Every structure is written in C-alpha cells, then in structure tokens.
Amino acid sequence: MQQVTSKTKGKQNNVLPFIPEGDFYFTKGIEAFQKRKFDSAVKWVKKAIDHKPDETLYQCQLSIIYTEIGAYHAANDLLMNILKVSENVDCYYLIANNFAHLGLLNDAKKYAHLYMEKDPNGDFKEEVLHLLELLEIEEDLEDEELEEEDELLIYQETVFYHMEHHEWEKAMHILEEMLVLFPNQPNIKHEYAETLFFLGYEQRAVHMELEEMESNPTSLYGCSNLAIFNYYLGQMEAYNFYIEPLLKVYPIHEQQKLRIAVTLARTGQYAAAVDRFKMLKKDKLNGHLSYFRFYALASYHIGDHEKAMSIWREGCKKHPELKNENTPWHEC
C-alpha cells in the first residue's frame, strides 16, 4: 500500500490509490465472523484466499467458519488440502472435531490421536483430551443402544409370531414386559390394545387406543385398530370415521401396506382389500400368516374362489400350521 509522504501530506485534494491486499480482506472476514455475520465472513476470507492462495492461515479460518455454520464436510476438505502442503498440526484437531460433529467417531478418534502424537503439548491439547473423553462416552452409549435394539428386535419378533398365530395370551405376557422395558416405542401400545381386544377386553382396548390417538391422531396403526374394533362391535358410524382415511392412504413400506389390506379385508371392504393385496411384494411378506388368511378371504368374497384356494394352498405350504385352521371363508 502506498505510504503517505511529506510531499503528499499538505495536498488535501489529492486522492491516494488504495489497493486492498489479502490481510485487509482477512481482517474484514475476522470482523464479520466475530459479529456472527457468517455469509459476509465467508466472502471476505475467500477474497483473502484468492489474493494469497498459499496462505494456510486463511484456509484454516475459512474451515472454522464452515464448522460454525455446520458445513463439516467442506471444512474438512479445506483442512485435508492444507495437510497436503503443510504440516499444520492444529488441522488434526479441527478435522477430529468436524468428524465428531458428523457422527464419524472412528475417524474423529484417529485424527485426535494423530494430534496428540505429533504435538502432545500443543495449544489444543486440553480440547483434544476432552474430545477423546466425549468420544469414549459416545461409543459406550452407542454400544448400549445397539444392545437395546437387539433386545427390542427379539421381543418384537416373538410378539409378531404369537400375534400372527393368534396366540393372544402369550403375546400379552411379552407385551406387558415390553411396556416396561421400552416405554417410548410407539407400536407396542397399539399391539397391546389389539391383543386386549382379541382376548375379550373390548372396551379397555377401545379406551386405550382412543387415548393413544389423542397424542397421534394420524397413526395408521391406531386408525386400523379402531376401524376393526368398531366394526366388530357394530359401531358403524365410528367404523366409517376411522376406515375413511385408510382408504385414501397408500404407504411406502410393505408392512404398512399389508396392515391396511388386512384391515379392509377384516371389515368387509373386500374389493378394496384385493386391490391393496395385489400391490404388495409377496416375497417380503411370506412370513406373515395374515397375508394368506386375508388375501384368500377377500378373494373368495369377490367371487374369485379359484384364486382364494390357490392363495390358501400356497399359505399352507409355506406355513404348515395353517392346515390346522379352517379356510378363512369357512363360516360364509
């Protein structure tokens, strides 16, 4: 930048040329960052980098701004590029911190340890040790969550088996345990209400489901339960209220699609049920006895007896226990 000399001091009308340099842009970027004007900070620091592309300090600062706004991948890209040309040890801590934010715990630990190896008494020593401590806690929590998920899966598969086989008392014992162990799992209460109903506690089941629907009025499981409950109880006005939204819903997941198809078949909407069953991917539902029971039932009721028999024979072949049951249309 041109310096003011004794000759120019007295010439107040002269305008001196001002050529911004990288440090000027960088300073403006820091000022914007401190005021939490992150968009402006990014623009100024990028200008500084354009002016001095080899200045790693500028790139480090840009990465810190990216971290502040949650652009962790962009921040790490910058830091990795710095490490290709300069052994800036601080980059290892910054990279570790970004990986931690991304949930990539192993990568975070790797770069935190690299920092400690290369500069065990560095400026970020305390931060790195704290980060490693947090990562250990996070890993322990993840392990606990995985164990809980495995345990939950075992319970869910057991309940599913009993409910599909209409072993309602056995299902009830498992569900009572699940309500204690996994109180925040939403479908457990719906399964509990369904089991209550088919054990003969109809009013308790309806009351429980209505309470659940107050907190989640659009629940597909809740609507289907209440549609079935009210249909079986002869409450047709209430049944129509709950079946109506199900007729308009076309879920993505096969389990939910099957739920609607079974509900329609159970409540006399046979043509609509068959249409829904036809949309299902059978290979994903072979373990569901309800698929064969209610697809056969609906097909029979729309007059396609041959199709009904074919579905029922296939079901009995895949699930020999179905042979002990009457055909779904036995009482028709």
Note the beta-strand portion: under 5%
Low-confidence stretches: 1-19
CATH architecture of the largest domain: Alpha Horseshoe
* Helical coverage, percent range: over 70%
By DSSP (H or I, 4+ residues per run), the number of helices equals: 17
Which radius of gyration do the C-alpha atoms yield? Answer: 33 Å
- How far from one another are the termini? 97 Å
User: What name does CATH use for the topology of the largest domain?
Assistant: Serine Threonine Protein Phosphatase 5, Tetratricopeptide repeat
**Largest β sheet strand count, sense and barrel closure:** none
- In total, the number of strands is 0
Tertiary shape: elongated
Q: Give the integer mean of the pLDDT values.
A: 85
User: What is the CATH superfamily label of the largest domain?
Assistant: Tetratricopeptide repeat domain
Structural class: mainly alpha
Number of domains: 3
Q: What is the CATH C-level name of the largest domain?
A: Mainly Alpha
Topology order in helix (H) and strand (E) letters: HHHHHHHHHHHHHHHHH
